[in-house]
Amino acid sequence: MKHRRKRTMLGVLSAALVCSSVLAYPAHFTAYGAVTANPVISREVPAYSTAGTGAAASGNDKFYYSFWNATAPDYLAYDLSAVPEAQRKSVTLVWYNATGQFDYTILNGSPNGMPSDYTVEVNSAPGGTYPEEGWEVRATVTGNTLHSRQHVVDMAGCNWIRLHVTGSDGKEGGYISINMDVHTTAEGVSDSWIFYGDSITACGMMNCYGTGFAEYVHQIDSTYYPIQENGGIGGIRSVEGAANMERWLEAFPGKYVSIAYGTNDAWGNQTGAAQYYANTASMVEQVLATGKIPVVPRIPYATEPGVGDNLAAYNAMVDKIYENYPDVVKGPDFEAYFREHPELLSADGVHPSEQGYDGMRQLWAQTMYDAVYKTGDTPVAGDLNQDGACTVADVVLLQKWLMGAGTLTNWQAAELTGDGVIDSADLCILRRMLTNQ
């Protein structure tokens, strides 16, 4: 349904609505555009490896429980020549290892088949026959300690892409075990996610055939198939997350960053709620400093008293994050979800059951689809109060918010300059919109 814009006389309010480039409390909200789809384009394309094409095909089939298994040095190469050229001029290559710990150096994990030294390479040779020569290096990684990585790759004029692993588990001759997807990012990296957190994230947010976050988003809306990494580490607290966030973000070229710590902080009140807030705020600020979008869910409900008795104080800090950082996307309310469904917790009363983890992934997908993907009707520019029209009330609302008062929720309608920031320039444009009606 199309909205109508009302004509309104502004004479009586003109003195109160003078635009100023200096505000007492400048707005800090950054407006982000809608998600541009980055679907996977490498599913079941011809795959090659010295380990054999059968082994290579396990790297890009639809089953994330099957893997390309090889011994370093070796390569996993995809022939993308049948993919429309426009979709492969810029891509994101992402590989996944099944190791449970995102960064095995944090809590004495094991690399267990993770590529530690490798290059990402492209080739302009025609498709159909694997090219032995002509490979050009686009990225080089040494000493990797993470169980998944993303690389944005310029493939203009090229038909082939490969991951050439020279060291795995920190050595030549090491075992390699990964899946590898290639997503189109020709229109920019937009639909790319990483989920940092503790064991609940580590066990719940892996790529799953048919039931992963990316799969559930795709089932809701087939336009999308997100790039997804699981940044969970069992036993980790917010303090370790804050200490390592900058380093982890350097390896993540994507857009959305989930920060899901708190269960271990609350378990026995290890850090105290105030310190948990400080750590989470630090992580949010580090994400924002990179231009990425932080997403924070509420800490899951637990029947275990060591967690449950402290949960109210810790989730109050999550709510404080929402209040103090309006840039944060609100993740799922896992306290409410598991309080309503305690039968989805495992015997320890903290970790979800297999069905509980699946429910979490579904809730992640639906919540993010509603908050991030779904645009609904095109909003009326300047309709800040969402009454279907742009009026003086919207001007007053924006001015109050810029001065540190009032609440602003319809960010997309308020960002009028196209610079991605809501500030006094948007107020000036909004006023001109009304005077020109």
Automatic annotation (TrEMBL):
N-terminal signal peptide: 1-24
Keyword Metal-binding appears in the UniProt entry: no
Record flagged with keyword Signal: yes
GO terms, biological process: polysaccharide catabolic process
Keyword annotations of the record: Signal
Domain Dockerin: from-to ranges: 377-437
A Pfam family per the record: Lipase_GDSL_2
GO molecular function annotations of the record: hydrolase activity, hydrolyzing O-glycosyl compounds; phosphatidylcholine lysophospholipase activity
Protein name per the record: Lysophospholipase L1 and related esterases
